[in-house]
Structures are given as structure tokens and as C-alpha cells.
Design a protein that fits this description.
The chain has a five-stranded mixed β-sheet. It is built from two helices and five strands; from the N terminus they run βαβαβββ. Helix content is 18%, strand content 23%.
Length: 79
């Protein structure tokens, strides 16, 4: 499994991506084992599992497998 960090999230973690051989059961478990932590998804951070927003697929309860790619993006602003 690959967890990729983008923009300011990458700056906070100090790495662009992490690879994991073990497959946790849910997104929440992976986030607790990865560089980031927390029990809920912050509304300002976008987390995609295989290109789909995790908010719409179960949030922290989104099931994961070893083949998944998780991408974590910071809030985006503009005007």
C-alpha cells in the first residue's frame, strides 16, 4: 500500500510517500499507523482512496487492501 502526501501535508510529514507491506482493515487504522493520526477526517483535508474521496466511501471506516493507494491533500484556497 502506498500513502502519498501532497503540498503542505508533505511539508508536515517530511516525506512524499510511505509504503506499507501490511494491510490494515480501515483507513482510520492506516492513518493511525502512518505519519498522520486522528479518529475523524478533517473537513479541510481531502483523502482519496484509489482516486475516490474517502468521505463518500465510509470515512475512517473505509476498508483497505494491500493494493490501495491513499492520497492526502491539504485544504485548497483560491479566489
Amino acid at each position: 500500500m502506498i500513502v502519498r502526501y501532497y503540498a503542505t501535508v508533505r511539508d508536515l510529514t517530511g516525506v512524499a510517500e510511505e509504503r506499507f507491506d501490511d494491510a490494515p482493515v480501515t483507513l482510520g487504522e492506516r492513518l493511525r499507523r502512518a505519519t498522520l493520526s486522528g479518529d475523524d477526517l478533517a473537513p479541510t483535508v481531502m483523502i482519496l482512496v484509489n482516486g475516490r474521496n474517502a468521505v463518500f466511501s465510509g470515512g475512517t471506516q473505509t476498508p483497505l487492501t494491500a493494493e490501495n493507494e491513499v492520497s492526502i491533500f491539504p485544504p485548497v484556497g483560491g479566489g
